[in-house]
Structure formats: C-alpha cells, structure tokens
Amino acid sequence: KKWVYLFSEGDASMRDLLGGKGAGVAEMTKSGVPVPPGFTITTEACNSYYDNNKQFPDGLWEQVTEAMKDVEAKTGKKFGDPANPLLVSVRSGAKFSMPGMMDTVLNLGLNPETLAGLSKLTDNPRFAADAYRRFVQLFGKIVLGVDGEKFEHVLNVAKGDTRQDTDLSADELTEITEQFKQIIKQDAGVDFPTEPFEQLRYAIGAVFSSWMGRRAIDYRRLNKIADNLGTGVNVQAMVFGNMGNDSATGVAFSRNPSNGDPALYGEYLVNAQGEDVVAGVRTPRPISELQAEMGVVYDQFAAIAKQLEAHYKDVQDMEFTIEKGKLWMLQTRTGKRTGAAAVKIAVDLVKEGVIDEATAVSRVEPAALDQLLHPMIATAEKDRARKDGKFLTSGLPASPGAATGTVVFDPDEAEHLAKDGHKVILVRTETAPEDFHGMVAAQAILTARGGMTSHAAVVARGMGKPCVAGAGELKIDYKAGEFSVNGQTIKHGDSISLDGGTGEVFAGSLSTSEPTLTGDFAAFMEWADKFRKLSVRANADTPHDAEVARNFGAQGIGLCRTEHMFFEGDRIDAVREMIVADTLEERRAALAKIEPLQQGDFEGLFEAMNGFPVTIRTLDPPLHEFLPHGDDEITALANKMGIAPSKLHSKIESLREANPMLGFRGCRLGIIYPEITEMQARAIFKAAVAVQKKGIKVHPEVMIPLVGDLSELKVQADLVRKVAGEVIAEGGEQIEYMVGTMIELPRAALTANKIAEVAEFFSFGTNDLTQTTFGMSRDDAGRFLPLYVERKLLKDDPFQVLDQEGVGQLVQLGTERGRSTRSNLKVGICGEHGGEPSSVMFCHKVGLNYVSCSPYRVPIARLAAAQAAL
Ligand code: ADP
Ligand code: MG
Ligand code: MG
Fold first, then answer.
1. Domain map of the chain by residue range?
2. Residue 765 is assigned to a ligand binding site
3. Which tens digit of pLDDT belongs to each residue from 236-275?
4. Predicted TM-score of the model (pTM)
5. How far apart are CA 372 and CA 464, in angstroms?
6. Which residues form the active site (predicted)?
7. Under DSSP, is residue 252 helix (H, G, I), strand (E, B) or coil?
8. Mutate to test the pocket of ligand 1, among 29, 89, 135, 204 (most ligand atoms within 8 A of CB)
9. Is 193 exposed, middle or buried (0-12, 13-18, 19+ CB in 10 A)?
10. Which of 135, 167, 255, 535 could form a disulfide with 163 if both were Cys (CB 3.0 to 4.6 A apart)?
11. 843 is catalytic
C-alpha cells in the first residue's frame, strides 16, 4: 500500500488523504511556487497506526527512507552527513486545519556531529547553535513529552529582563541546549537520541499521537470534526529564516481576515524561525514593512499570494520563510476569517468577477454571521468612559465584537467560573494551545504580547470571540492576580470591557449597542434572498423585538408569547390576581385590568410588522413561574389584594404541580377558564381593528398551544372565531385572520390530519415537541444531557439542534398528514431550532413554509435557507 507521497506526486484534490497542509504544499509544488522538497505520510497511515496498536503499518518505514533519498537528491544534502547535513521538519496536517492544535518539530537531523558540520558549512556558529537549541527544545517537548515550561524557564533566565532571544550568543545557546538535555534526561529518563533516522521515526510517531492529544480532541469537539479522519505527516527539507538579517519568517493572508480589506495582511520577523511569529516570542512587524526592507522578495511574495488566491478563488493564509534573500513558501490554506470579513470578501470577489452570487452565498457559514449580529460598544459610550478615566489601553483589533466580563488569568479558573454562569475575560501575557479550554469558556481574550496571527488571535477569530491581542502596555502579575496599565491596577475579579474590532480596553462594564444590517452585509443578504424558498419570521413578544426583527429582514412574527407581556412592570400583580382568583367574577375583574394593556401591546406589534403576518399564541403559562415565592412576596401581594396572607398561601399551595410542564398549561387553561382566551381574542381583534383603521393592513394568526386532540382545538378555535366575529362586526373593518395551532405533542403530530380540519396553520413548537418526544424535561436535562453529548450517546443537544431522526420525523409526518386534509395548510416552526442552520435546512427539505427564530438570528436563518435551496 502506498503510504507516502512526494510533494511532486500530490495535488489540492487529495486533502482527505494528504491532509490540508500536504495537499497545499503539493499543489504549490505543482504550480511552480518555490517549496522546499519533502513528502507526506497519508492520513490512512495514521488511522492504520491507531488500528494497529500504535505501530507503523507494514511498509511505511521503507517508503519513508525511500522518500528521504529523493529529498536528499533534490537538495544535494544528506541526512546525518556531517559534511553537508540535511535537516527536516516533521509537521502534522489534518484534513481540516487545526491551528496550533498539533505539533511540528523543526531542524530534525541535528546531533553533535551534524551540528559541527552545519556550523562550519554556514560559517555561522550562532545560527547552528540556535537551530540545535530549538530542535532539542521541540523534540523534548513534543516527542519526549517534557513540560515545555521547564525549557522556557531556562531560556528566560538566560535572557534576563532586557534581552531577546536574538541577543543570545552561540556559547550561551550551547550552554542552554546542554541544560535542556539534562532536563530531558531527568524527566523522560532517556538520553537525547542522536541517530537521525531514529529521531525521524520517533517524531513521526509523535505526530500520529498528537492526533489523540487533549488539545486536538477538544478542538475537534468544538468544531465538530470527526475523530477518525487522522492526520497526515509532512516531512520537509528545512529552510532557515534565522540565518541573519537577510533571513526572515512570516505569515500573511492575501486579504485582511479581520475586516476583509483587499490587501496583503500579515507579519514577519527578521532572523527568526518557524513558530516565533505565531508564538508571540517577539512582537512581529507588519508585512508592509517588508516592502521597504526586502523589496524584491516582497514583490515576489505578493505575486505568489495573488496567484494562489486566483488559483483557489478564495483568500489564502500563507507561511513563508526567507533564507538569505531567497523566498520559500511553506504553507497555504483557505484563510479563516471573521463573519464580517467573510461577507466583505464574498461580496468583493463577486464584484471582481472571481465568483458568482450563488458561490458567494454558499461561502459564508450561516453561524459566522452571528459575529456581525453581536452588540458593540457605541462611540458615545466609549467617549463617556474615556472622560471618566476608564480607558485602559489599546492593543491589536484581533477579533471583532464587544464583551464585558470579570478578569481571570488562569484558564482552568475561567473554565470553572464559566460553568457556574459567570462571564469572564481571559487575560494572559500570551496564549498557548494549553490554554484552549479557558479561551472556549471566556467571553473574550486579552493578551499583552503577540500579533494579529498570534495563537490568541487565530483561535479567537475561529471561535468568533472578541480578542484584543498584543496590548503591550499591560503589565500582568499572575502571582499577585492583577495587571497594571497606565497607572491603573485591575485586579482578578474586576470588570473590564473590550472592543475586539478596535482593540480598545476599558475598566468596568460598558453598555453595548445593537448591530445593524447595512452596506455589504445588506447586499449579501439580498443575494441570499434570491435563492431561498423558506420564509423567515421572528419570535417577538414586544414592539421593540418586532422592530429589530424587521430590520434584520423578518417577514412576519411566527410566535408572540403573550405571557411574556405579563412580566412587564406591575402588570404581574393583575396576572397573579387572575391566577389565584377563586370565582369567575374575581377573574373577570383581574382580566379587565389586563385587556387594555394587551391590546396596546398588540397594536404595537401590528404597527411594527407593517402588513406582515403576526402569529399570537394564547396564554401558555407555566403557572408556577408567575406566582410569588417567598413569604414576604406572598404577604405583599395578599395585602395588595386585600386578602389574608394565609388564604393566598393555601391557594398557591393548591396550584402546586408535581410536573408543571405536563400540567395545567396551554389550551387546557383556556378550556377550563374560557374567559382568559376570550379576553385575549378581544384584545387581539380590537388591536387589529384599531391599527387597520390607521391604514396598516393586519394579518393576525391566532395560535392555540399544546393541543393534543382535535376537540381541544375546536373548543378554543370556536371561541376565538366567535369573539373575532363580534369585534370585527363592531369595528367595521375587514380583517383577514387565521386560527391555527402549535404542534408540540406527539399525539398532535400523529393526528395532524384531523387537527387540520380546524387548524388553518401549524407551527411546530419544537422546544416542547423535543421535550415531549424524548420525555426529557428542558429544565432538568442539564444534569445529564451535556454528558450524553460528550459521550456521544447523542450527536448534539436536541434542544439546540433539531433531532431530525425522531422529532424531525414527527415534523415531516405531521406536515404530510395535515396537508392531506388541508392542501394549503401553512406550516412553520417556532422553536429555538428555527435559527439553527442545520435545522433550517431540514425544514426546507421537508417542505415547511417558514421558520421563525429569535430576532438576532433572522439573518442566519435567511442564509441557511438560501444555502438549503442552492
Ligand atoms: P502549524 O500547523 O501549527 O502551522 P507547521 O507545520 O506549519 O505548524 O509549522 C510550524 C512552523 O514551522 C511554521 O511557522 C512553519 O512555517 C515552520 N516550518 C515548518 N516546516 C519548515 C521548514 N521545512 N523550513 C522552515 N520552516 C518550517
Ligand atoms: Mg503552519
Ligand atoms: Mg410550548
């Protein structure tokens, strides 16, 4: 079996087999771009290694040694030959890039003999000593599993407070390397291997092993990447960016990945190697300065970037190294970008004629739009904070979005606090892959060191989290648990706010403001709308929500939960009076107080939706949520109502349910107390008449919740229609309305053909339908559901991602059966799932008319619906 492919044998189409990095270097090699020679060990070999009890599969090693001969021939160097030593890097590379999640060893092949040879050959003992120091450090950490901090510590002691790594002399580096070897001997219990092929064999095994390392597993879980893809291993001749001041290493994007600006964007470091740029060892310089410093190389690089972008028809993220004035390309991949950049780049590429509108629409991940829909800190708010002396510092705008939270320095603590529901901002000098779990947990990340392509920046952008990187004025004291900046000290646990789009950092919690849909974003969404078949509505309970939803392009309200209106202000008192009323008269009296308030709310909604349909659900209160809890609250309410507290107490006691979610709620309430439904219907239709008299067309859709049997719906629908008839006749306006039901019980889905005799529309309430289908309480599933997902008993949390196999089947079947009775039955979905991309795609597939989701997710649903139709 062929386990090994020379770079000259592969191409971009072989990502599955060679991994993204291997396919990328192969494609570059094929296109004539200068790439150091090398070869890729396939992902199949990695999987076979795991199937094989962590042994190399048969033939792999022979193919590796064979391929090494080819690299020797192409470079004219020999592996292990002191006279002219070949050094290689051993690099991991899976199908999907996992930045910093797996490991790379550089300068492999060095030992005391080849070191002496390299030193003599290059006439540069310092360079050789530096290369050796790096190799021993990386090999010790990655292959032999020694704690990297120990090496860092030695290095930091040697550098002292003021010097950088480039200031270390050859002798110092040699001394440091000796200390590294001692640490390795102590910790790993082995002598540092000197035989180059032995080093190579170990390193390949270590890359295979890193696939199942904690960081890699965490990353895959977060990004929903399968565990069985395996990683490729790339073995490649080294080129050296650390040979002096005519050498450099860098990374660059063909366009700005943060805001989409169409200009080369990146950073480089002179006299540096490999990961120095990413690791934030020194703060790198912007790529534009390379133009002044090494004009010819810069132009060559810019041309290659253009060539690769045109070739792949998308933004490229590239690594390069300059060895003594000669440019080498080491990696290219599709650039990860923020949601904002994704939209701008897609729009620009269409304008440049590189891709068409459909491709543009398919390019942007719906979930990535979330970042554009995040709150931001308004300029006025920032000005105010500045006046109050709350401005702390600014760093690089590494990943956009505003965030506030309390300062935490330790990633483990960030994880714990976040689990308990705290909003934290992780503050670090720099981040490393070990900190990943803390970054996942934090609202945002702030670092003192590192550039736009530092680990913190790359990872934050990938997660769509705000990040300010390289805020160089921060002085972090981990021990004291505080940082100081510009004369202010911020302690662990204090609140700060940051704007990852501008890099500003403030003390305290600043208030954030609403995002808008304008410019490129608006244009892009219009393209999406050309393709989609599903309508997108919003779940909105207040005129303000409705307004937001309209601005994001909602085509109606798919769910207005009337009970949510009851929580505002002191309305709750009237509602509580209604709930605890003993007699019909008492209840009618309480309802009479509520009716005008409801009518006012509905008028606001109808006006905000300006002609679009508005679905209003009759009361579905989990009663316990409305009742007063503590003794004090009960006494206060009793006093207001003029009854004895003990009487109220026993009333509340009598309303207590063992299982409120399956209790006296939904249409059951309106059936037992028809006066409630009656009041709501009156409020709805009076509002409709009033608004329509102002010249705004109104389409109310009255929705009866939690129906299990046709008879339930019939009772309530008859009542609504009766009231509607009266109010409309009285008002003298022609109102086009519908009465329908939510489908949120399996029995309703199963008997949908009957229910559709009365219902003019269905809306699948998939939150409750998931709850009732799984028999899992939404409110209590937190104890076990996350573990189910972690242990892969369930692929996703079914309350977040629609369970297509089970709940989805009821949606599909309910739709079909409903339409068998009423062919023009309008069907939608109004659970959380209405704004979740894969669920939206499912709704498209089974022929729903619309999805309804929270106002901020409307653009996401619009895009997902478009992609479903493409
Ligand atoms: P990652 O996947 O984390 O980007 P890489 O395998 O790309 O890891 O390598 C880490 C660093 O080492 C990068 O900066 C890369 O450019 C550099 N590097 C890898 N191989 C070589 C090589 N053959 N010569 C010089 N630098 C290399
Ligand atoms: Mg890389
Ligand atoms: Mg419900």
1. 4-239, 240-337, 375-507, 532-621+665-869
2. yes
3. 999 999 888 899 999 999 999 888 999 999 999 998 887 7
4. 0.77
5. 10
6. 455 (tele-phosphohistidine intermediate), 830 (proton donor)
7. strand
8. 89
9. middle
10. 167
11. no
